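Writing this down once: the sequence line spells out the residues, with the fold written below as integer tokens. I am pasting one below:
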Amino acid sequence: MKLSRRQFLAGAAAMSALPASAAAPLDAKLFPKDFLWGASTSAYQIEGALDVDGRGKDIWDTYTEQGRITDGSSAKVACDHYHRYKEDVALMKAADFNAYRFSLAWPRIVPAGTGAVNPKGLDFYDRLIDELLAAGIKPMACLYHWDLPQPLEDKGGWQGREVTGPFGDYATICAKRFGDRVDTWMMLNEPNVVAIFGYGLTDHAPGHNLGEIGILKALHHQNLAQGTGLRAIRSVLPKATLGTVTNVSPCRPESDKPEDVRAALLWDAAWNRVTLDGLLRGQLPDIVADQMRPFVQAGDLELAKFPVDLLGLNYYGRNTMKHEPGRPFNAGWGDPKAERYTGMGWPVQPDGLYDILMELKTLYGNPAMYVAENGAAYDDVVSPDGAVHDPERTLFIQEHVAQVARALKDGVNMKGYLAWSLLDNFEWAFGLSKRFGIVRVDYDTLKRTPKDSYKWFASFIKQARGI
């Protein structure tokens, strides 16, 4: 049985074995005035222009060519952000965003992944960054949001450590070019999702089925690249704010049966701990350490560990696990029992965000953190009045922002909340069929229409920032 990331989350996010958290109030005054408010996007999902201005081929281009996108669409045009970035920045400014996390496209900047640099790719991000700064918006650049250059995948991709050097070189190129204007840098986006769904379950590019060892190798080699990139940027920009972004979820057993408990512990290791323990502790989780030792070399854990300044967290739901032989780590997903679901079939569980924030506070010494992604797809449409009424998404954002406020009140070192996503976009293996944006994109005309969720979010940001 094949599961995409979104299908996984629909199945994984069942109610936790722990008691449900109490409803949290939403009060804009609870947030510091310098709190980061905005949205996140990724280059591949919004830019389009895949064959424009010297961009190289990446693993998602190949995955699409293989006919593996559910609705048969592609990201060739997507939102055409490459040509319409000024319009999109204007939407951010109108909503009083003070931060925007976007990704730099590795194949647009270094088309082969290593070697020759593409000046036109650098020029595009110069234009975008300057536009953001002119609008008073902090550019938060992420180096890698899944668009691995195909030539590097042909050499083994994240299954080998050979990617580490090219990633460090790419990080240096970006820091030298944009570091005079970008002071906040994220290395990777969701290395756990890359590893599990790209190398373990086939549902994301590059689409390999390499089981547990393939997953653990991809996690470890991303940890090495991440540590290399962090050091590369620190050497160029000693005062920059450095971090990375991972998807986090509380992992709980479906029952108290020993086999379900073990499945939850193993999944927690793969989903949360290999990344976080590697980065923040320089350790391997005990439960998977024996599996990982054959490919962990001397000095690897020291390289993976780095004192980040800001940790980005993506949250979409809980992972409730049960013993299921034949699945990676013998872990399957329990039946969701929530009362509400998104248009993807995901249970809506905002209290799980509070739970994982408190867990990270306890386990990792309360590092500076921000929500780098949080959002939901719903089947919203343009109404006869020309507006997009999306009350479910509006409530979803309200409830999750309330959990961030609750965490702040309880001492979690939270620095921001960025919604996923600014725009409806190319939703990976689902293509253009699922809409996560607070701004609707008509894929025929490329017209942008702010949804009611955008309007509420903008109003709340104004209150929170005291504007």
User: Anything to note?
Assistant: Residues 5-465 form a domain with the TIM Barrel fold (CATH 3.20.20.80). The mean pLDDT is 94.
